[in-house]
Specification:
Helices cover 25% and strands 25% of the residues. It has a six-stranded mixed β-sheet, sandwiched between helices.
Length: 369
């Protein structure tokens, strides 16, 4: 298309560049490195024509071409339809286990612009930035192309607090669509997910920032120490209970033994149930409790409830019928937020099934922090 975008406008937070400069100086010497990308469906590459056209791979390719002496490993940990609340619970397994040297975090169109997601996002950022391998971190903020809506405001508060470089598509790409310079329909079919041309523009904004850092790589900069949390930071120690690391009490729920091969195999290591009255009980510790389950595009599907500490009045309905059409959703519902610290009982039971249910109820995990 040859669109001229204001890529330089996208670098919205300079941050402390010590780690980024160290990364590039090491890359010049030929050190082996791992580049990881954590986010939602945009990071996963949704709507791009092939995986090599998504922004994450194009950024990886920038490193490969810029530093030909270095062997880079590419880790794409994008999972569609998920938020930083799930991201902080899976970052150890899906990203940090690979000992990354560089991590992009992208959740601004999946999170809502609320204090709740500011806190879950902070837990994720602290996990990555505070990792023993000290990766360089870059925050990426996308938005809805029709409204400009995103969680960027809350996310940038975290980025500013931790002095992390951040890039935004709002003053760069979105501003050009609003001005009529770019027809957004040529970039996205649904006002959210960029097509291959849209991904190329995303990558251009990010690599413009990387180019500018590259030009400064030999300028001295002092490292930035981890500050105290900005929020209550209840989510940094999040963990997931699945059938490979927990033994709940099951009545009518069966563990799914199918192996998980890829990060996008999201319906694995959970439990299924089909009969009304089936239940599964966990004992967990913490102040934050959430449950993940499958919402299915195949109807009808069962309905369950989740109850914490026997409080039936605050039971949360888990309706497995998904009203969207783009595919099954890995849905997450918060059961307790900033509750009393200690051990809690979580019971999930099926309350409604149908003779012709298309799928069983699939419980993916219980998440605590």
């Amino acid at each position: 298309m040859g669109y001229e975008i204001r890529a330089e406008e996208g670098w919205v937070n300079r941050g402390n560049l010590y780690r980024m400069k160290e990364l590039m100086r090491r890359a010049e010497k030929g050190d082996r490195m791992t580049l990881a990308f954590l986010g939602g469906s945009i990071t996963q590459g949704a709507v791009s024509s092939q995986y090599t056209n998504c922004y994450a791979y194009l950024v990886y390719d920038w490193f490969v071409r810029r530093f030909p002496k270095t062997a880079f490993t590419y880790v794409n940990a994008g999972v569609g339809g998920t938020t930083s609340q799930f991201g902080v619970a899976r970052v150890e397994e899906d990203v940090l286990a690979f000992k990354p040297d560089f991590v992009i975090i992208e959740f601004s169109v999946n999170d809502e612009n609320t204090d709740f997601y500011r806190e879950t996002y902070e837990g994720l950022v602290r996990n990555v930035y505070g990792n023993v391998f000290e990766p360089a971190v870059l925050l990426v903020h996308n938005m809805f192309y029709d409204t400009g809506a995103s969680a960027e405001e809350k996310h940038r508060e975290i980025g500013t607090h931790y002095h992390l470089p951040g890039v935004s598509m709002k003053p760069s790409i979105y501003a050009q669509t609003e001005a009529g310079v770019i027809d957004r329909r040529e970039l996205t079919p649904d006002n959210l997910h960029p097509n291959s041309e849209g991904h190329a523009l995303l990558a251009e904004v990010i690599t413009d920032c990387l180019d500018r850092i590259y030009m400064q790589r030999h300028e001295a900069e002092e490292p930035f120490s981890m500050p105290e949390p900005l929020t209550e930071n209840a989510y940094q120690a999040a963990r997931r209970f699945r059938n490979d690391n927990s033994v709940p009490v099951c009545e009518g729920f069966t563990a799914d033994g199918a192996p998980k091969k890829y990060v996008t195999d999201i319906f694995r290591r959970g439990w299924t149930a089909s009969e009304q009255g089936a239940k599964i009980c966990f004992e967990v510790e913490g102040t934050e409790i959430a449950v993940q389950y499958r919402k299915s595009v195949k109807h009808p599907a069962p309905v369950a409830v989740a109850v914490v500490d026997g409080d039936e009045e605050r039971a949360v309905t888990l309706d497995a019928n998904f009203e969207e059409t783009w595919g099954d959703s890995l849905h997450i519902d918060t059961l307790a937020h900033h509750t009393a610290s200690g051990v809690h009982k979580v019971e999930i039971r099926l309350t409604q099934t149908h003779e012709n249910d298309a799928v069983p109820f699939y419980l993916v995990s219980v998440i605590t922090a």
